[in-house]
TrEMBL record:
Domain Response regulatory: 2-118
Gene3D superfamilies linked to this entry: 3.40.50.2300
Modified residues (4-aspartylphosphate): 53
Stated name of the protein: Response regulator
Organism field: Bacillus lumedeiriae
UniProt keyword list: Phosphoprotein
Length: 295
């Protein structure tokens, strides 16, 4: 991944560059200390991602993004901000911002967000490659062709920011398994049966299946906690964010989401008290997938 950093604070630019380099998350191909200077440099360099400060003198982050898009730049943006102004944050989301990095800059938060951005970038380009391949096929594809179960689930997990989580692969398999086996049933089978079905892919002995089932449960739990953290982060910045409003009440207990939001507001990077309900999450994902498939 190729990054361009726009921030009027030299220390912030150096810190972000060090985090990217040390974490082997890509390379920084340029930087600027103002929006005005950034415009020609970004358009010339065409980075994959622009990390841009929200508040800068003269041309602020949002105005800079608008100018870049008007001039044809199609890369991704990550906003850097030390304020929690809901109106400005909401405007940034409207301009296409996917993630925020909060100031003071936290290494763990930056690495986590950039890894998610990388995963989204790879997924986007994989889909583009698929579309280009299909474009060369002479047989026309009906525009009404239904999306696959995996494509629908991936789109939902992408909205939740967890396509890069290991447990997401287990979730996708289990949803495919249930939908193909139980299309007329609105309820999921017991979680134990789902874990064992996923475990049997690579394991044969009962002892290995039992052990792998526990590993699968833990991987899925971590993925769901990551989804909760992502939604809670969105909600703590902007309670009216569309993704937060749509997914939080469907996939989680709102009381637990609010508890995690409170932890985030208090500066906690770890989920200390929040409880997650794996069955509720998977049941909501199952119903959401069935609805999007039109079944």
């Amino acid at each position: 991944m190729r990054y361009f950093i726009v921030d009027d604070d030299t220390a912030s630019r150096r810190m972000l560059e060090n985090i990217i380099t040390d974490g082997e998350l890509g390379i920084v191909i340029g930087e600027a200390d103002s929006g005005e200077k950034a415009l020609p440099l970004v358009l010339a360099a065409q980075p994959d991602v622009v990390l841009i400060d929200l508040l800068m003198p003269q041309l602020d982050g949002i105005e800079t993004i608008e100018q870049l898009k008007l001039q044809g730049f199609q890369g991704q943006f990550i906003m850097i901000s030390q304020i929690v102004n809901k109106e400005m944050v909401g405007e940034a989301y409207d301009k296409g911002i996917e993630f925020f990095i909060h100031k003071p800059i936290n290494r763990v938060e930056v690495q986590s967000i950039l890894k998610k951005t990388i995963e989204q970038f790879r997924l986007k380009h994989s889909l583009m490659a698929i579309r280009e391949s299909l474009a060369h096929i002479e047989v026309p594809i009906s525009p009404q062709k239904q999306r696959s179960v995996k494509e629908v689930i991936l789109s939902i997990l992408n909205d939740l920011g967890i396509t890069g989580e290991t447990g997401s692969r287990d979730i996708i398999f289990m949803m495919e398994f249930v939908i193909h086996q139980r299309e007329d049933d609105a309820l999921l089978p017991p979680l134990k049966d789902l874990y064992e079905a996923a475990a049997r892919i690579n394991k044969t002995s009962e002892s290995d299946i039992k052990k792998e089932s526990k590993s699968i449960e833990q991987r899925i739990r971590r993925a769901i906690i990551a989804a909760l953290n992502n939604l809670a982060s969105l909600g703590s910045i902007d309670y009216t964010n569309p993704k937060f409003e749509y997914y939080a009440p469907r996939f989680f207990d709102l009381q637990e989401v609010r508890l995690r939001m409170k932890e985030i507001d208090e500066g906690s990077n770890e989920t200390m008290k929040v409880k997650i309900n794996i069955k509720k999450f998977l049941q909501a994902l199952y119903i959401e997938t069935i609805e999007k498939l039109g079944r």
